[in-house]
Design goal:
single chain; 504 residues; alpha/beta; Arc Repressor Mutant, subunit A; Aspartate Aminotransferase, domain 1; Aspartate Aminotransferase, domain 2; 3 domains; four-stranded antiparallel sheet; disordered N terminus
């Protein structure tokens, strides 16, 4: 016991010597810099479980910053599961899953007590008087609806084959049509390597559950799709973030993580990335694939809506660049392109990983809805969707240009607005000195909603970011919604630049 107490004191003393370098004026909030450097020290092993962090007041004095700044950084670290407060005072690096287990625990209480983003988005989009820039999926062309209705009626005429249990891999006719569809997009795969799922989210979850044991490191982009962050937290994975550059993931930072942590999986959304809209260059896709081969790590490629390209030349998917035996899992959905609501997606899986993935799917839902599979297979086979889809691509391209123009005219000076070559979202970065959390609540009260950027970060939160999606917009709603949003942003900025009567 005495020896254990000595070890505890040594751990506490080591953490007291924590060195943090703050850079002022670089656009990164000071609390975020503290947060990020503590996470980096934990990832590097410099801070190990049980170490005590410096007291808030002591660290604030050392760094020459406000105590509230350090307190906020510690709170965010606790919310993300990196540290914990203990009885008697003090903040300690979180101990993984008990004294004897090496598994890293996800802060389930924090995750479960937060409102589901999907519920929040649905509520906002249907709230009376609220214009919601939240839909990252399209409104379907009437011709597509009519065609799918005809396909459903054809299947209903001989529906008896849909009233029995199917294998978890999916119906043969749909897998055949998916393989043909992918071949047109440069992805050559046999139908037996296609696994049909209930949307892309289930496909992502199945891949993670089949590859990632609790506590295992996984690399994602920063920022990243919130659905994969949630799936990784549920799997109790250790999330490692790699910054996005204008042409894709930071390859040097990626290799640093690969060499230091030996992760089990790299998740990437390389085309019209959600939320930023970034498209990774062909060079970076090849570099990522080469690193995955070098370090023996699998890739989960989420190709959510590469069909909705408005400008520029298409870039081959990583799966298209890969060899058949490369461990690249390629996920797509029908919901982000032309059939939202049918809840059908799929994953192209390496042959040697198919059995393990199917075993997990069988435990999850046995098989995906048979009726929808048959109707979708017929819909793809007939190919009539191609003409209305071209009209949809043109109309959304014009809408994106209009949205960028109006935001550029109305948002405060210094706002950075993404200009992606496709997709249904724009990524905004507000000027320094503002925070999206304050803008969000003012905007909802004014009758306009968007997605706060915080949900797209696993730990290194940029509090000035937001996603504006226009999938469900009409021209009239877009113009009024942008007007409201810009007005609220202007109101938020004005008081910060004006003298306060309290200090006159």
């Amino acid at each position: 016991m005495v020896e254990a107490n000595k070890r505890a004191k040594r751990r506490a003393a080591a953490a007291e010597g924590l060195t943090i370098q703050l850079v002022r004026g670089n656009g990164r909030p000071l609390f975020a810099q503290v947060h990020e450097q503590v996470v980096d020290r934990i990832a590097a092993g410099d801070l190990s479980p049980g170490m005590r962090l410096p007291p808030v007041r002591a660290l604030a004095t050392t760094l020459g910053i406000n105590q509230m700044t350090v307190a906020r950084a510690y709170k965010d670290l606790a919310d993300a599961g990196f540290v914990e407060g203990r009885a008697g005072g003090g903040t300690y690096v979180r101990t993984p899953s008990g004294v004897t287990s090496r598994k890293v625990r996800t802060p389930r209480e924090h995750v479960e007590n937060r409102p589901l983003l999907s519920e929040r988005l649905f509520d906002l989009s249907h709230a009376p008087g609220v214009i919601a820039f939240t839909a990252n999926f399209p409104v379907i062309d009437k011709a597509c609806i009519d065609e799918f209705k005809a396909c459903l009626e054809a299947v209903m005429a001989d529906i008896s084959s849909c009233f029995h249990y199917d294998p978890p891999t999916g119906r043969p006719q749909l897998r055949l049509q998916i393989a043909a569809y992918l071949r047109e997009h440069g992805v050559v795969t046999p139908p037996e390597d296609v696994v049909v799922t209930s949307g892309a989210q289930q496909a992502i979850d199945l891949v993670i559950r089949s590859l990632v044991p609790p506590g295992a490191p996984v690399i994602i982009e920063r920022p990243a799709y919130y659905g994969v962050i949630n799936a990784l937290r549920t799997a109790q994975a250790r999330i490692l973030e790699v910054p996005l550059e204008p042409d894709g993931m930071d390859i040097a930072a990626l290799e640093t993580h690969l060499s230091r942590h030996r992760p089990r999986l790299i998740y990437t959304n390389p085309t019209f990335q959600n939320p930023t809209g970034t498209t990774a260059s062909a060079e970076k896709r090849r570099a990522l694939l080469a690193l995955a081969r070098k370090y023996g790590v699998a890739i989960l490629e989420d190709d959510h809506n590469s069909d909705l390209r408005f400008a520029g030349a298409p870039v081959p998917s990583i799966r298209a660049l890969a060899e058949p035996d490369d461990p690249v899992f390629y996920v797509r959905s029908f919901g982000k392109v032309f059939l939202p609501g049918v809840r059908l997606g799929y994953v192209v899986t390496p042959a040697r990983a198919r059995r393990a993935l199917l075993a997990i799917k069988a435990h999850s839902d046995l098989h995906t809805n048979a009726l929808m599979q048959e109707a979708t297979a017929l819909f793809l086979k007939r190919g009539i969707y191609k003409r209305p889809f071209e009209r949809m691509r043109k109309s959304y391209g014009l809408m994106q240009k209009k949205l960028i123009r109006k935001l550029s005219e109305g948002m405060p000076a210094g706002t950075l607005i993404g200009r992606p070559e496709g997709g249904l979202s724009l990524w905004l970065n507000l000027p320094e000195g503002t925070e999206v959390s304050e803008l969000y609540y003012r905007a909802v009260r004014r009758g306009v909603a968007f997605i706060s950027g915080e949900v797209f970060y696993a730990s290194h939160v940029n509090p000035r970011t937001l996603r504006v999606s226009f999938g469900s917009m009409t021209d009239e709603l877009l113009a009024e919604g942008v007007s409201r949003l810009c007005s609220v942003a202007a109101d938020l900025m004005r008081p910060r630049g004006a003298p306060s009567a309290i200090f006159t």
